[in-house]
Write a structure and sequence with these properties.
Largest sheet: 2 strands, antiparallel
Helix content: over 70%
Strand content: under 5%
Order of helices and strands: HHEEHHHHHEHHHEHHHHHHHHHHEEHHHH
Strand order of the largest sheet: 1-2
Radius of gyration: 26 Å
Number of helices: 24
């Protein structure tokens, strides 16, 4: 047991969390770092070893294949980097609780990824959702509402997950020869999640599929289960946001999506088409909302939703190039999105605000944070040769490949998804021009004259993520695709046989080098630059009426095609949480009016209920 890597990646951080209950704060940090580092080492060993298993009472509980090994590795890589950042940045008010919860997140995320047993999977999945809620509560009343919202949406989706898995478990046992009367908890407990393969051929199988799909969407943050992400990003501790919605939940949600699209079910194309449409809708609506945000956290939160659309699009194509692109984009997004949240967290800590209108000119004050934010912004916007470009490029090719194999109607629908994906990438770039300019490149307010760069630990950890963005872009074929993702596809799949078009990192790097050299030459020749005040109505602007990096984008909300939509979004007309809240209160109000407190009214309801039950029993007999 103690020499099994799968057991160790779950139990080590769990033991660390238990010990952290009784040790001082400094020891908590040391133990958490040691535990997460050790867990990463064992996850690397598990990845190298390939397929591993761990059993209890002759029942396989934990198991890995190429997909789970891939996710497990990056869960622990990202956990360690974010932990390094957290060692110096976490608010002292809840620092002790933070380092108590951190190893639990790692343990439960690892458990969910490598659980072969369906009961173990449900338990670890649910516990990881609980960690999201507890992390959100660390700031007290400030984040209570958004934490409750995330808990209800994630918790509700967990119920759907249980329903879906219960249906497929019963159907699988019946296919294996167990009659409905012979199904027991012991039989269900013995089912291996990796061995279940069901065809979508009945109403119940469709119910199971969509229940599990919505659970994956809720975890990853895809439409219509996405609305908790921006609110959580706005209110929760920034380190918690970087760790869970930006990294862990993206990996877990897309892991489950990949499982159901590639193994659990045999899916007809029209269902894949529906999922592709949901992916395209997710990315375009979320990026439109991000474009008009003034709060930096909410802007990043909406982009955390938008990027899920590319993953959903890629994986739902069902072809090798699209699946590789979707999984690659999942990892890329976890890397640069965590980096962007940490960059903004550094800025927020030094300035004391999350309002983009109130920032500006911080590039000279915080150069290392600026570098990380810039690379992250270029990566998420799909600028070559960084990692975000390559994974998006593969998703686009996957969409084109899928469109080419179907009739005219589906070609129109799928190519529309492609156009929305490309347009969404352009809007992402526009949004991050706003983000970078508003924070780092506009005029520095005088109140930030004394701002300094964050401590070494913070910017070092953040720039480790930046380095991954560069490596996974420049060496996309050689490292992430070939080593981590290609083995997930069926044996014999060759990347060279499925890639379309031309992409060479060497050529792109050469062109970038030429551009930089040319720019440097032009600067050296014409380097006389005059700095002057900004004038409004022939008078220099004041701090109160200065032009910020977000003013231009206000016009988008007033454009006639979008004005009404943005107003409806602000009133939460598209928020599934608001839908159920209104439904629950409305339903409760009906019962409140029916319960008048009068005895004869209750007697009438009892009589009506007795009649209904009697009719049901008579029909049943």
């Amino acid at each position: 047991m103690w020499n099994n890597y799968l057991f160790l990646v779950v139990i080590i951080p769990l033991i660390v969390a238990l010990v952290n209950l009784v040790v001082p704060k400094l020891i908590k940090k040391v133990l958490t770092f040691a535990g997460v580092l050790l867990t990463l080492i064992f996850s690397i060993k598990a990845f190298v070893a390939g397929s591993l298993s761990f059993s209890i009472l002759n029942t396989q509980v934990l198991h890995t294949d190429s997909l789970s090994n891939f996710i497990l590795l990056f869960v622990n890589i990202l956990s360690l980097i974010i932990l390094i950042y957290s060692l110096k940045n976490v608010d002292k008010k809840f620092e002790s609780k933070y380092f108590l919860l951190f190893p639990l997140v790692v343990s439960f995320a690892n458990g969910a990824v490598i659980s072969a047993n369906i009961i173990a999977f449900i338990c670890f999945w649910g516990l990881s959702g609980l960690m999201l809620y507890l992390f959100g509560l660390l700031k007290g009343e400030v984040s209570t509402e958004s934490s409750n919202k995330s808990f209800i949406i994630i918790g509700g989706s967990d119920v759907l997950l249980i329903i879906g898995i219960a249906i497929i478990a019963i159907k699988q046992l019946m296919l294996n020869g167990s009659g409905i009367m012979g199904i027991s908890f012991a039989n269900i407990f013995s089912l291996n999640l990796f061995d279940i393969h069901l065809t979508l051929s009945s109403g119940l199988s469709y119910v199971a599929f969509f229940c599990i799909l919505l659970a994956a969407f809720a975890k990853a943050g895809a439409f219509p289960m996405h609305t908790w992400v921006p609110d959580y990003a706005k209110d929760a501790p920034i380190e918690s946001v970087a760790l869970i919605p930006a990294a862990m939940d993206k990996l877990l949600g897309i892991y489950l999506l990949a499982r159901i699209m590639m193994g659990l079910f045999t899916i007809p194309f029209f269902i894949r088409g529906i999922v592709m449409i949901l992916g395209a809708f997710t990315l375009i609506t979320a990026v439109m909302m991000a474009l008009v945000q003034h709060n930096g956290r909410k802007l990043l939160g909406y982009h955390a939703v938008s990027q899920v659309g590319y993953m959903v699009l890629g994986i739902s194509t069902g072809n090798p190039i699209g699946i590789i692109g979707g999984l690659f984009h999942m990892v890329n997004n976890a890397i640069y999105k965590s980096s962007l949240f940490l960059s903004f967290g550094s800025v927020e800590k030094q300035t004391g605000t999350a309002d983009l209108d109130d920032m500006g000119g911080l590039a000279r004050k915080m150069p290392w944070t600026f570098l990380a934010a810039l690379i992250g912004a270029l990566s998420i916007s799909g600028i070559p040769p960084l990692n975000g470009f390559f994974s998006k490029w593969m998703v686009y090719q996957g969409i084109l490949e899928t469109a080419s194999r179907h009739g005219t109607i589906w070609q129109i629908i799928i190519n529309t998804c492609l156009v929305l994906a490309v347009f969404g990438s352009a809007l992402t770039l526009a949004s991050f021009i706003k983000f970078i300019h508003a924070i780092f490149l506009s005029k520095l307010p005088k109140k930030y004259d004394d701002v300094k760069e964050v401590p070494f630990v913070n910017w070092f950890a953040n720039n480790l993520l930046t380095l991954l963005c560069v490596i996974f872009g420049v060496l996309a074929f050689a490292v992430p695709v070939k080593i981590f993702i290609l083995p997930i596809l069926p044996a014999g799949t060759l990347l060279e046989d499925i890639l379309l078009g031309f992409y060479s990192t060497k050529v792109i790097m050469f062109l970038f080098a030429i551009s930089i050299i040319l720019g440097a030459v032009i600067y050296l020749i014409f380097k006389k630059v005059r700095f002057d005040e900004v004038y409004v109505g022939t008078k220099p602007t004041t701090e109160a009426n200065r032009v910020t990096g977000v003013d231009f984008y206000n016009e988008i909300k007033e454009m006639s095609p979008f004005r009404q939509i943005y107003k409806m979004a602000e009133k939460k007309y598209f928020d599934i949480y608001k839908w159920f809240e209104d439904f629950s209160f409305g339903f409760g109000e009906i019962f409140h009016k029916l319960h008048t407190g009068l005895l004869h009214t209750y007697a009438m309801w009892m009589l009506a209920g007795l009649v209904i039950v009697t009719l049901i029993l008579v029909n049943a007999l």
